[in-house]
Amino acid sequence: MTAYTKRFAIVFAVLAMFAVACSSSDEPAATTAAAPATTAAAAAEEPADDMDDAEPFKIGLVTDTGKVDDKSFNQSAWEGAQAAAAALGVEANYIETEEAKDYENNIGLFVEDGADVIITVGFGLGDATIAAAQANPDIDFVGVDQFQAETLPNLTGLIFPEDKSGFLAGALAGLLTETNIVGAVLGTDLVPPVVAFKEGWENGARYTNPQVETISTYHPGGLDIAFGDPDWGAATARQALDQGADIIFGAGGATGNGALIEIAAQDGAWCVGVDTDQWNTVPEARPCLITSAMKLITPGVAELIEASAAGSFPGGNHLGDVGLAPFHDHDSAVHGDYKASLEAIKAALDRGEISTGYSPG
């Protein structure tokens, strides 16, 4: 038994079409910042394998202050770690961060446990990840949503063109809206990928519908609460609905999920998920969930872990893929000409012929 979690099997589907399905008997037991001593003690007492002198490849993942089962960002990264673990025949472990002040300590627990690769999830862990990579050159680090301004051979930032994914979702919103008002309920603007999603969403809507109005609201709190406030997300979605929005983008972890679920309880409005195909992860939102602006985090994380195990870890930055999730039960609402328009827009975005209007700060 490892220090942080029990082993369990997962199913990994290409292009982030996946669902977590595990019984209570094999659900991983997370270690949090509130109880790190337990994991350290357990790791120290774990017996060596008498059948094989080689130490198994160790994978550790540190979440941001959202939970590992946030049905969005952290969960997608964790499923990528599990997918790689299954492919390699080893175990993956995680630590849930309760407060931002615990980032360094939580990474350190995996360093002490002898992890071969450590995944840190989210922009907020960027500085702590760089420091850990510099201090531990023999360990590979994957920083999800952490752009690397300077290249370290043992640190790769897994980054995504969120503005393109947001632009595609916004383009669909511009086609679908009947009120010519679209909304967005967002995590904090302290996180550049959230800003990229928002800018892409608004400009995509205007691209297909020049008359559209946008209502976009960032959570007013800091990194410690902005992605874990579903009540605020629900209340903000209600405000946008009251102002006439008939399609709303929820992009902010559990905060955005709160918006999606609130919209699903109403009539006459669509909602758009984020990061993964939230048809699978937030089934409560299915009545309104037309699509999700996906960052293919799961395959990106799995690919980098397997590269680490193979000794071909790239360092620097690794650009992951983005796209729209299937329309599922609402496919008939997206007419054939709409689909053709979206395909043409994506091709033009990929060729650089359309600007999303987002300029990184």
Please describe what this structure looks like.
The protein is of the alpha/beta class. It folds into two domains: 14-35 and 54-160 and 298-319, Response regulator (Rossmann fold); 162-295 and 322-351, Rossmann fold (3-Layer(aba) Sandwich). The chain contains eleven helices and 13 strands. Helix 4 links the parallel strand 4 (117-121) and strand 5. Helix 5 runs parallel beside helix 6, helix 5 packs antiparallel against helix 11 and helix 7 (230-242) packs across helix 8. The longest helix has 17 residues, at 192-208. 55% of the residues are buried.
> What structural class do helix, strand and pairing data support?
alpha/beta
Count of individual beta strands: 13
Shape: globular
Largest sheet: 7 strands, parallel
User: What fraction of the residues are assigned to beta strands by DSSP?
Assistant: 15-25%
Annotated CATH topology of the largest domain = Rossmann fold
Rg, alpha carbons: 20 Å
**Mean pLDDT over the residues:** 87
Could you provide a short overview of the structure?
Helices cover 38% and strands 17% of the residues.
What order do the helices and strands come in, and which of them pair?
Blueprint: E1 31-32, H1 36-45, E2 59-62, H2 73-88, E3 92-96, H3 103-112, E4 117-121, H4 126-135, E5 140-144, E6 155-159, H5 162-176, E7 181-186, H6 192-208, E8 213-218, H7 230-242, E9 247-251, H8 253-264, E10 270-275, H9 278-281, E11 289-295, H10 297-309, E12 316-319, E13 322-324, H11 336-351
Parallel strand pairs: 1-3, 2-3, 2-4, 4-5, 5-6, 6-12, 7-8, 7-9, 9-10, 10-11
Antiparallel strand pairs: 11-13
